[in-house]
Amino acid sequence: MRQRSLIAVTAALAAGALTLTACGSRDEGGSGNSDSGKGGTTVVIGIDAPLTGDLSALGLGIKNSVDLAAKIANKEETVDGVTFKVEALDDQAQPSSGQQNATKFVANDEVLGVVGPLNSSVAESMQKVFDDAKLVQVSPANTNPSLSQGTDWQKTQTRTYKSYFRTATTDAVQGPFAAQYLYNDSKKRKVFVIDDKKTYGAGLAATFTAEFKKLGGKVVGTEHIDPETKDFSAVATKVKSSGADVVYYGGEYPQAGPLSKQIKAAGAKIPLVGGDGIYSADFIKLAGASGTGDLATSVGAPVEELPSAKEFVANYKTEGYKEDFEAYGGYSYDSAWAIIEAVKKVVEDNDGKLPDDAREKVTAAMQNVSFDGVTGKVSFDEFGDATNKQLTVYAVENGDWNDVKSGTYTG
Amino acid sequence: MNELPQQLVNGLLLGSMYGLVALGYTMVYGIVQLINFAHGEIFMTGAFGALTVYVYILPDGTSMLIALPLMLIGAMIISTTVAVGAERFAYRPLRGGPRLAPLITAIGLSLALQQAVWAWYPEAKSARTFPSIPGGPFEIGTVTIQTGDVFVLCAAPLSMAILGYFVMRTRTGRGMQATAQDPDTAKLMGVNTDRIIVVAFALGAIFAAVGGVAYGLKYGQIDFRMGFILGLKAFTAAVLGGIGNIYGAMLGGLVLGIAEALSTAYISDIPGMQQFGSQSWANVWAFVLLILVLLFRPQGLLGERVADRA
Lengths: 411, 310
Prior knowledge:
The structure holds 2 protein chains of 2 kinds.
Chain A: H1 2-19, E1 41-49, H2 56-76, E2 82-90, H3 95-107, E3 111-115, H4 120-132, E4 136-139, H5 146-149, E5 164-166, H6 171-185, E6 190-195, H7 199-215, E7 218-224, H8 233-242, E8 246-250, H9 253-265, E9 272-274, H10 281-287, E10 295-299, H11 310-319, H12 329-349, H13 358-366, E11 371-373, E12 376-378, E13 390-397, E14 400-408
Parallel strand pairs in A: 1-2, 1-3, 3-4, 4-5, 6-7, 6-8, 8-9, 9-10
Antiparallel strand pairs in A: 10-13, 11-12, 13-14
Helix pairs in contact in A: 2-12, 3-4, 6-7, 8-9, 9-10, 12-13
Chain B: H1 4-32, H2 39-57, H3 64-91, H4 100-120, E1 128-129, E2 138-140, E3 143-145, H5 147-169, H6 171-181, H7 183-188, H8 193-219, E4 221-222, H9 226-241, H10 246-266, H11 282-296
Antiparallel strand pairs in B: 1-4, 2-3
């Protein structure tokens, strides 16, 4: 009998482990190495992003860009008597790790603002922790509308957390923008919608679907994939037999790359279209040669082409970061700079010193921050969302993302 | 278009890969009653061994015709070394101890191996691209088969045949059977059971290496976490087919793979079941199948009703 009960125990373990696929905690991501200043007060800007794992390409771009902002602020002595340092924690794209990191930031009195996270699902787990501590959080990448406008955002918009801000455009704009491009410019009529069931992916797919149907397009199939596997052959076969002329994917590049490859291998030579979550050089690597023609929308105008971004790109090169700044580099820099601006305001209003309730004051000051950043004018509306609603469509050509069309979504 | 033949082939390909990995679970279990949860990582290290041969040893642009056999050998060397090392240093000291001790060790080893590859293999922090076999897809009727799939279609039955011959016909193979039936009596009959156990680990690792190369060829990428989920599925396949039975492992793999493909394809067409039909539900249906099989045949599809020894 013992033998059988052993199998029962291990089978139960296996089933449990299938749901808990996060595997152990990894290194905590060393704190940044900004120049230590010449006396005065130290203000730490926290960074929370996936620094390891599938999404680390995007996460490391965020970390480096924030680090750059802190270095520049120290060099130019933007805030008199204040030296900025950064502390980066790894959330592995897991909500549970994100919440632990948020608690750590709150416990460190020197932290006056946090840039991050990358994932909307991680943001959900952090918001309350930060809001209770009145610690300001600026995400360069979250696009799910409910984070700032409440879960019922389609009907009544209410702001739940006063400490949450973002420099990225929401999916309430991004999904419909992609739908309009596909329907009006690419003349696509039959779409197969796939998502990964996560906060970001499912939300994006839903806003896309609503707009595409409104325009008169047809959804010929929907599918939800399991982000833990790499075998999407069964889904790819369904896409092929559905007769769709385009696939819309709500999710991120670690799954989107293989998915695109397998859909084409199944014989459906149609483009895969996604949001900012697939706008990464790694998508092109994973999708392989057949990924040419795939499309992605991403927030803002192409950073490389904005005149305001030239300086950022040059400084990033000078610092010699190993990793590329990726999709959110400019937004991360602007997020960090918004925190720096808010700290500056608070310090100036308090005769050049940090007040005791600095966190609360910085959060309040953030609402009125306004400056010309890497990605254009940076300021926040009444929900803490970016007022800049620009988006760009990119296409994979010759192994690189090339911008096709920039614009703003208009109702 | 009727997509059934294609979906069956999709399931068959996925199932063959589960089967190749499941062989290792079932052989080790049959002989030492240990569920080697680190086997998924042995599969993963095999894939990285093959990648090492292709990227760091062979000159650039080597034809896959020459490279593939060498990659297979590299994969087998690495995975066998890891498996035999794990047996010698992690499991053998615990043999004779409580059953749960080696099981927990196996889980720990699984995590340790993942982290070791993550930390020390160059650029393994995100997925690495794996070479693919050139050549267009083959169309047979309505079924499309990729060049990478041809490898697993040939390798899985061939591996099965070789293993069947080895276990049934060779002296070592008979020693394995004897050890599985009764280790103490086998020892009395002059079978070196310690050596037999090492052979079981090594054989399992060799098939896992073949599976690892098949995975790389099929999906074009490998990463340090690839063995985790696949290992659990392969273990499930081994239990489904009857753990301890090598043919059962392969059959269990195929049944599991086909069940996943068909549930993804067809359950959403059943009225009222639409929300349960997507790929994210395929695992649920696979486990429902496992539970049903175990309810009616607790010993698995091909398992034999053997007297419990413990």
